[in-house]
Amino acid sequence: MDRKLLYGGLLLAAAGVGLVHMCRGPRLVPGQTRLLVVGDSLAVGLAPPLRALAQEARVAFDAQVLSGTRVDQWAASQKLEAKLGAFKPTLVLVSLGTNDAQMTAPGSTEVQLRAQQTLLGKLRAAGAEVGWIGAPTLPHVPNPELLEKLQLGVPGADYFHSEKLEIPRSPDGIHSTPRGYAGWAGAIWRWLS
After folding, report:
1. pLDDT tens digits, residue range 83-142?
2. Distance from C-alpha of 124 to C-alpha of 121, rounded to nearest angstrom
3. What's the pTM value of the predicted model, to 2 decimals?
4. Domains and CATH numbers, the chain
5. In a 3-state reduction of DSSP, which class is residue 60?
6. Residues 133, 94 contacting (CB under 8 angstroms)
7. How far apart are CA 144 and CA 188, in angstroms?
8. Can you name the residues that pair with 92 across neighbouring β-strands?
9. Which entry of 39, 94, 119, 143 is 20 to 30 Å from 63 by CA?
């Protein structure tokens, strides 16, 4: 990962970081923290700059990410359970919700909210602290209520407000540019630090 992008990204995101309310001390301890990132295509893009930051900070890092996935899929994932057992994370960052917010079938919001609590329970039962990376602003959200309720399902100090950042986007308006992912990762890292 190009250090210029990471540090450029930190500057890009600095204004947004001030908007993120922090109520805890540092969650990243060199040589002790074992950070796992879980999520959809946005997590796929965040993983490389987060990995570079972790390596520099001597924080063990792994990622369990797959494009197009939703909360219910991760809550039932045997691969995630295996990763939790093998990697033994102390901190898990979850980046989910963008695909879930496309669901409009009756009852889908309630299903995803129950799945969120199941997922959080599994992560905590594995001994990990959990941080939820909220979705950035999106061009078209058929079910915005779901995103709001996912936020409410996580304690305030454990929720990162990505929607408050100006993240450069690729032409699809959803995914970021490499510089945008670096800035977003830099803002997340500062939130954790």
Report:
1. 999 999 999 999 999 999 999 999 999 999 999 999 999 999 999 999 999 999 988 899
2. 5
3. 0.88
4. 24-156 (3.40.50.1110)
5. strand
6. yes
7. 23
8. 36, 130
9. 143
Q: Tell me the C-alpha distance between 183 and 20, whole Å.
A: 14
Tell me if 109 sits within 8 A of 70, measured CB to CB.
no
Residue 148 main-chain phi, psi, to 5 deg: -65, -40
Of the ranges 69-73, 134-138, 169-173, which is most confident?
69-73
Retrieve residue 162's tokens.
């990505």
String of b and e for 75-101 (b: at least 16 CB within 10 Å)?
Answer: bebeebeebbeebebbbbbbbbbbbbb
Query: How would you write 37-54 as a 3-class SS string?
Result: EEECHHHHHHHHHHHHHH
Query: How many angstroms separate the CA atoms of 174 and 41, rounded?
Result: 10
